[in-house]
């Protein structure tokens, strides 16, 4: 048994050992089917991860987990639905962590994501890749930095599929870390941004693994770096930002977050957390995530996850303030 297998087995054993105790402390949970509200439309990345997690969670707790999509409105309708629910653990929210961190700074939201929700668990992490057009005059991050610094009055355009996304903030964050002169070009969606990247209209783009890696494997782009902490078969042969000296870029990885309403009793919060950790310790869950380009997250306590959300909220808030990003209409 290698180290990774040992850690997975140990985590599963430990979770199994504490689960009965945790559920005994919250006998009302799970007392019936769980309603899981997803803040994005069916078939999208968040929906796929949510349904996968719901399937494993249902088996772990012996109850049905019914997924209900409530997309649109910058995730506000879905979030408000859960905020207004009874805090008994039977109504949960799956959304991108960014909706509570950077998104809360760029959209007008009628609630405080740090106090009006109970942070429960991270259920998956979606790395991104920094790719260049195949004909770009740089084939590595080091060459890109050198090229940009040699041409300080000539910004290098990077396609973005929307304001406030990793593809928008990523180039600006890299500028601060590397002293480059990258300039996001905003598109109305991923498809036109990718089309112009491949066509050579723009030379750079920060993209998700599921779309970025196939283009690289097809020889249409060059991968300069990924936000995966260690080299992985998810992006074969691609270097990581960490190994290249820019671990801060890992902030761009999206994560899928599980929340409940505020004021959930601690016993219920702990019971939901234990069930989530049981899912996260399952190696088959890891394999299913890998199949859709998602990494399994570290299983942490609700308190630690809430602290992570709070830290990310503050860091992105300061970054957004520093770059002068304004909410539309303000």
UniProtKB/TrEMBL annotation:
CDD domains: PBP2_Bug_TTT
Species name: Cupriavidus respiraculi
Keyword Amino-acid biosynthesis in record: no
PROSITE patterns: TAT
Residues in the signal sequence: 1-24
Designated name of the protein: Tripartite tricarboxylate transporter substrate binding protein
InterPro entries in the record: BUG (IPR005064), Bug_dom1 (IPR042100), TAT_signal (IPR006311)
Gene3D superfamilies given in the database record: Bordetella uptake gene, domain 1, Periplasmic binding protein-like II
Pfam families in the record: TctC (PF03401)
Family: Belongs to the UPF0065 (bug) family.
Keyword vocabulary terms for this entry: Signal
